[in-house]
Protein 1
Amino acid sequence: MASEKPVLYSYFRSSCSWRVRIALALKGISYDLVPVNLIKDGGQQFSAEFKALNPMQQVPALKIDGITLSQSLAIINYLEETHPNPRLLPQDPKKRAQVRMIADHIVSGIQPLQNLSVLKQMGDKKMEWAQNCITSGFQALEQILQQTAGRYCVGDEVSMADLCLVPQVANAERFKVDMGPYPTISRINKALLELEAFKISHPSRQPDTPAELRA
Amino acid sequence: MASEKPVLYSYFRSSCSWRVRIALALKGISYDLVPVNLIKDGGQQFSAEFKALNPMQQVPALKIDGITLSQSLAIINYLEETHPNPRLLPQDPKKRAQVRMIADHIVSGIQPLQNLSVLKQMGDKKMEWAQNCITSGFQALEQILQQTAGRYCVGDEVSMADLCLVPQVANAERFKVDMGPYPTISRINKALLELEAFKISHPSRQPDTPAELRA
C-alpha cells in the first residue's frame, strides 16, 4: 500500500485544497488528482461515494500510505513528518509556534467564516459578510506579520503559514476586499506567487479549472 | 524571562480557552489566569490593552517564555514541544494524523461556525444555526471515531483530539443538541470528564465563573 501514488481529492477553487497542493509540490510528491466539484449536482462532496471516503464531506482529502486523511493542516503535518524535506516548520519552537498561530488564524479564524456553506445562508448579504470576515482577520494578521515576517510570514523560510496565506489572499481578491491596508500581507503574497510550487498548484492551472478561468 | 510563570488569558465559558486549560493541567504547568470577559463592556477582548497583547482580540492567549501566543492548537503544540510529558500526540505518524484531523475538524470545522461573533449575526435564528453546525459536524465525527477510538478519540491515550472534544460537547449541551445519535462521542466525553485535568479546568470551576454557574 505505502508505495502506491497518493490520490488527492481537490476542487480547483477550494483554498483548503490549494494549501495541500502547495505542500505536495514543495515536497516533490507526485500524486493523482481526482476533482470533486463543490457546485455541480448540488455538490459532489455530498455523494454517498465521497461520504464513504470522507465523512466530513469536504475537500481536500488525501489517500496516502493506506489511510485517507482530511483537514488541510492535518494532511500537511502528516506530509511534514513523513517527507521532512524541505521543512515547512522552523526548528526553533517559538518560531514554530508563530507559524502555527498564523496558519490557525487563517484556517480556523478566517476561512471557515467565508466558506461556501456559510455564505449560502447569507443570501443577499453574502458579499458583505465575506468581506467583513476577511477584513477583520487581515487587520489582525497584518499586525502580527509586522512582528514575525522576513521575506515570508515567519522569517525567510517558506512555512505552513505561507501555504495558508496565499489561498486566503486569493479568496480576498475574489470577494473584492481592498488590499490597500495590508502592505505586508500583499508583499509576502507576491513573493510567494513567484515560487514554482505556488504557480503549478494555482487554481487557474488545475485539471478541473474551467476553460474561461485558465491561466 | 523563560522562568516566569506563564499567564493565561481565559474566559470561563470559552471552549477554546478550556482546551488550553486542559493541556496545562495535564502537563502539570502552573500558571496565572487573567479573566477576559467576552460579554461585559461590549467584550473586554476588544479593549486597546488586550488588542496590544493579542491583535486577534480573542481568548485564549498565553504569555510564556517571553512571547505571547494565540490560537488554542498553536499554544497546545508549543506546550507539547516544550513540555513533552505526558505526550498529547501518539508516536505513530498515522495515528498523529488522525488526532490532528479530529482536532482540526472541531477547531476549524465546527467551533468557528457557532462562535459568539457569528451567532451575533444570526439574531432569532441563533439557536437553530448553532444546532445545525454542531449536528452536521458531530455526524461526521461520530463516523470517524468509530474507526479511530479506543477508550479516547484515538486509541487509549489522551490526545489533542480529546482536548477539543470535551469543550465542544459542552457547547453542544449548551445549545441543547440531542446527543442520542452520537454514542461514541458521548462515551468518550464521559470517560474524559472523569480525569482530574478535565475536572479542574472545567468552566464551572474557574476564577471568573459566576456564582450561579459554579460546580
Note: The radius of gyration of chain A is 17 Å.
Protein 2
Amino acid sequence: METIDRLSYDEQKLLVETLLRQDYAIELISSEINDIESGLKQVDEGFYHQLKLLYDRLRIK
Amino acid sequence: METIDRLSYDEQKLLVETLLRQDYAIELISSEINDIESGLKQVDEGFYHQLKLLYDRLRIK
C-alpha cells in the first residue's frame, strides 16, 4: 500500500481534486467509518473523531 | 460539489490517508482517466498528463 509521505504535495492535491471531481469523498469517508465501527479496522480515537468531523463537513455542501 | 480550497490542509491530508488506507487511489485515478479518454469529461492537456504520471506512480508500488 502506497504511503502518504511517498507522494509529493502536488500528487496529494491531484488525488483530492480527483476525489472531489468524482464526487466520491463522502462515500470514501463513510466507508472508512463503517470499517472502524464494525470492528474491521482499529484506529486511535483522534483519527476516528477527525473522520466524523470531516464526514459532517462534507455532508453540509 | 465540494471544492479543494474549502478544505483545510489537514482535511485534504485525511482524505488522501483514507484513500490510501482503502487502497482505492489507483481505481480513482484510472476512473478519471477513462472519463477523459471516453470524452465524458474535458480537461486541459496538463491535468490529463499529471493524471497519467500519477497513475504510473501508483502502479509501481
Note: The interface with chain A takes residues 1-4, 7, 10-25, 28-29, 31-32, 41, 50-51, 54, 57-58, 61 of chain B (CB under 8 Å).
Protein 3
Amino acid sequence: MSSTKERLVIIGADATGMSAASQARRLRSPEELEIVAFERGDFTSYSACGIPYWVGGAVDERDDLVARTPEEHRERAIDLRMRTEVLRIDVRGRRVLARDLEAGKEYWTTYDKLVIATGARPLRPSLPGIDAPGVHGVQTLGDGQALIETLERTEGRRAVVVGAGYIGVEMAEAMIQRGYDVTVVNRGKEPMSTLDADMGRLVHEAMTGLGIEMVNDAEVTKILTDDDGRVRAVATENAEYPADVVILGLGVRPETELAREAGLPLGDHGGLLTDLAMRVRGYEDIWAGGDCVEVFDLMSGRERHIALGTHANKHGQVIGSNVGGGYATFPGVVGTAVSKVCDLEIARTGLREKDARAAGLRYVAVTIESTNRAGYYPGAALMTVKMLAERRTGKLLGVQIVGREGAGKRVDVAAVALTAGMTVEQMTALDLGYAPPFSPVWDPILVAARKAVAAVRAADEQPS
Amino acid sequence: MSSTKERLVIIGADATGMSAASQARRLRSPEELEIVAFERGDFTSYSACGIPYWVGGAVDERDDLVARTPEEHRERAIDLRMRTEVLRIDVRGRRVLARDLEAGKEYWTTYDKLVIATGARPLRPSLPGIDAPGVHGVQTLGDGQALIETLERTEGRRAVVVGAGYIGVEMAEAMIQRGYDVTVVNRGKEPMSTLDADMGRLVHEAMTGLGIEMVNDAEVTKILTDDDGRVRAVATENAEYPADVVILGLGVRPETELAREAGLPLGDHGGLLTDLAMRVRGYEDIWAGGDCVEVFDLMSGRERHIALGTHANKHGQVIGSNVGGGYATFPGVVGTAVSKVCDLEIARTGLREKDARAAGLRYVAVTIESTNRAGYYPGAALMTVKMLAERRTGKLLGVQIVGREGAGKRVDVAAVALTAGMTVEQMTALDLGYAPPFSPVWDPILVAARKAVAAVRAADEQPS
C-alpha cells in the first residue's frame, strides 16, 4: 500500500469507466485513491443493448436500463462529474482539460492514472436528409428517448430501418412490437453480415415471415422529406420506401478523437490499442477499454473492433483491478454474439467462411438441422447449426446458429471449445446436459460436430 | 473390405444396441455384415427419459417416444428378433442361446462380433407390499403404459413417489400435472443427491412451493394395502402417507447377469468394464455400452454407473463405428446432468463437495445468485450457481445450477471447461454470448467464476 494518495481520472462514465471505478474503489480506499470520472452525457452505467427492448415496449422505463445512477456512484466515493466533457488529454503533463457543459467553464485536472472509456459513435452517412426530423439513431439513452418521443407524437405506421446487423434486426423487432409496418434496407446480400450468407438467408426468411419487408443489396442514397422538412421516405438507387420514421442501425466506430489528438496508438479500425492488461500500448499509466478499443481476436490473431457491453464490462473489471494494484488480464475474444428477432434466435462465434479464407485456412463447413428439445417434447422447434473446422487438424473454427428458443445460448459451448482449441472430434464426446425438455438425445452441437468429423475425414481422402 | 461375410449379434435393441446396428450398417453392407439383434421386450429405440412427460401428459402418445420401430430397423437389413431373450453367452463357442418368448423355442446362434446392450433394471427393494397393485416403476415403455392405465382406472388423487433423484422429481412433476396431491419420500437429507445438500435444499423449497409434500431423511419400511390387496399408503419408520398410487424412482443397476455368468469383467457398481473403444476389457470381439456398462469419470479418474440416454447413444455410435471397421472412442464423462420440476431447472457437472473430499482434493466452493436474462428484461428470473475450484491451481472442479428457464443448459459451458481442464481464472474471460434477452451482461457462469477466483486467492493467503 502506497502512503501517497493517487488520483485516477476516468473519461466516460458508462460500462467500462464505472466498472473500473467500482473495482478500483473495492481495492483502494478514498484515502489511497481519489477517483474522478467525467461524463459528457446525462447517464451513467446504462445498458445501451437494452434500448431496442425499451423502444419495443418489453422494458417499461428508461431508468430500468440504468444499472447505477450518478448518486449511487457518488455514494461510493467516486467524484463523478456529469455533463462535463473532456476536451484534451495532455499526456506529458498528466492532465486533462475538462469543460463543464452547464456552467460553460473549462479547467485542467491532473491524474496519476488515466482510464479512457469514451465508447463509440454511430455511423451516420452524410446523405441528403439525414438530419431531418424523424431520422433517429439508437446509440444512447438520449437517442432512445428522442425516438420514443417521436413515436408517441407521430401518427405514422411505417418504419424503415437502415442496416441489418444486430441493432438493425433488434430495432426491426422493436418496431414490429409497436405495430409498425417495417422495411429493413440492407447493404449486404443478406441480413446479419456477421453470419455467412447461407445462415443470413435463414434470418431473412424468418424476418419476412414476421411481416418485415427485407430489402437486401441496397444502398440508401437519400432521405426524402416532406414540405415541413420531415422524413417521408428512404431512397435507394432503385426504389423509394415510405417512412414515417427512419432508424439508423449502421454500426459504430470507436470514439477516439481525444486519444488520436493525444498521440495514443490507434489500430486499423480506429480503436485504441492496448496490452493484455488493458493498458494503452507504450503508456505506463493510461488504460482504455470498452467500445473505444480494439480487442484481440484469438481466432484470427488480429485486432478487431467489437462494440459489446459484455466486453466493456470485462475491460472495466480488468482495468479496475490493475489500477487498484492487482493484476488481471483480458486475453481476447473468439467473436461470440447472440441476438434475436421476435422468437428467432441468432448466434455466432469464431470464424465465418470468409474469415477462414482470409486467414488462409483450409476448412470444411457443414450445416445440420436439429431441434432445441427432444422431437416429441412440446415446443420442440427447428434449429440450424453451421460448423467450420480446419482440414487435417479438425480444429473447430466457428459456429453459427439460427433457430428458436434455446438455440442462441448453445453457441456458448462452441465459444468455450474454441477458447480451449478443441477439435470437432473431441467435441463429439462432450458430456452436454441431456433431458427431453432441454435437448434431443444428441445435442445439435454434437450432431454438427459429428458431421464435421465426417467432412474432415472425407476432405482428407481427396487430393488437396 | 473382407470378402468373408461376418455376423454381428446384438443383445438388447434399444439406444445402444440399435445405434450400433445402424452405424455398423452405414459402414458395412448386408453382403459384408449380417446383423442380428435380440430384444426380449416389445419396443426398440425408445426414449425412456421421455416416460415422465408421457405420464404427465406433455407427450401425447407412447409411440411419440419410439425413435425407430422394429419395421424401420428391418428395412435397413437388420435381422431384429423381438420378444426374444438371450439366456446365455458362450464366449468360447462364440454363440448365444436365445429364447423366442412367443414360440417358447430356444436356439443357439453364432457370432463373429457381439454387442451387449442389456441396459439396466430398476431398484425394487424387497418390502412388504412392494408388488401390490398400484405400485409402479417407470423404467420401460411397458411400465409407463401400466402406470397410465392404472391412473386412468383409478379414482384416487394421492400419489407417493419413492425417491427424489431425477426420476423421482420428474415423476413428481408428472403427477402434479395430472392433478394429483404428491408426496415424495426421500432417503436423503435433501432431494437430488447428485447435488450438494445446500443446492438440493433449493430444489426442496421449490418443490414445496409447487405444493409437493417433501419427506426427507425417510426410509420406506413397507407398502400398506387395503382389503383388496391394493396399495393404500406408504409407511416409513415414523409415519404413513396415504397413496392411491405409488411410483418407485429409486434408480437403476446395470443388467449384467448374462455378462457375469459368461465371466465377463464387471466393475464395483456391477457394470461391464470396457476400453476406450467400448470393447469389453480383454475380449477382442465383444463390445458393450449404455446402461449396462460403467463409464470412466474424467474428473475422479474412476469408473461410475450413469444410466443416461445420451451416453447410451454415444456408446452405440462408437461401437457401430468400430464394429463396422472404423475407429471411434468414448473418452469418458464429466458427470453432466440436467432435469426440471415444472419450471425449476436443475443441472450439475463435475464434482460435488463430497466427491472433491473423497478424491482428497483441497477446494473452494462459492455460490452466487444471478438471473437468466438482463434484470430489466421480461421474464428475468433468479438462478443460483455453485462452483467448486481446486485450491492453488484454481482448476474448475464442478458446477451446480438451480434456477428457472435458461438455467439448466448453462451447465454445458462448465462441462466443456471441465473437459478442457480450465481454471476458474480462464473462465472469467470466456467470450459467452450476451444480449439482454439471453443473459445479464455478466453471464451467471462468469459471475460464479469471478467469485471462485477470489476464493482461490483468499484461500492461498491462509495457512493451509
Note: Chain B has three domains: 6-121+253-323, 124-250, 337-457.
